[in-house]
What we know:
- The chain is mostly helical.
- It contains 7 helices and no strands.
- It starts with a helix and ends with a helix.
Amino acid sequence: MATFPIFFSVNLVASLLNHIDDTDEPYGYWEPLHYLVHGHGMQTWEYAPQNAIRSYSFLLPFYIFLSVIKPIVTHKIVQFYLVRLLLALFTSFAQSRFISTLSAHRTLFPPMVSKITTVFILGSPGVLLSGTSLLPSALCSSLLLLGVCSWIDGG
C-alpha cells in the first residue's frame, strides 16, 4: 500500500478539477441523488415510474453517506465534492491494492511489472477522468481491480 498516497494525491486533484464529461452523470446520477437526499429536484425520465429503467441501488451507498453527513455539512457544493472525495478514496484504495498484489506475487510478475503498471495508471487520462465520476462504469473499474486482486491471491 506504499502507492496509496501517490494515487490518492492524483485522485484528489481529479476530484477537485475534473469536469463532468457528459449528460449521463448529472442527469442520470447526480440529480436523482440530490432528489433522494434533499427531497426535491428534477425527476429524470429513466427513474420515472412509467419508464423505471434505472434502479436507485447504485445510488444507495452515496445516499447513506450523504444522509449521515447532511446534518453536519449543509452546503450542497461541499456535499458534491465530498462524494467525489469518497470516490477518490475508493479508487485510490483499489489502485494501490492492485499494485501491492502485483508486487507480492513475484513468482507470477517480475518486479518491474508493478512499477510499469503504476506509471500506466498514473499516466492514463481515462483512469484519471473516470476515478471520480459518479457512474456505474467508473465504480466498476475499481471493483474490477479488486476482483483481479482476489483472483491473483487465489481467494
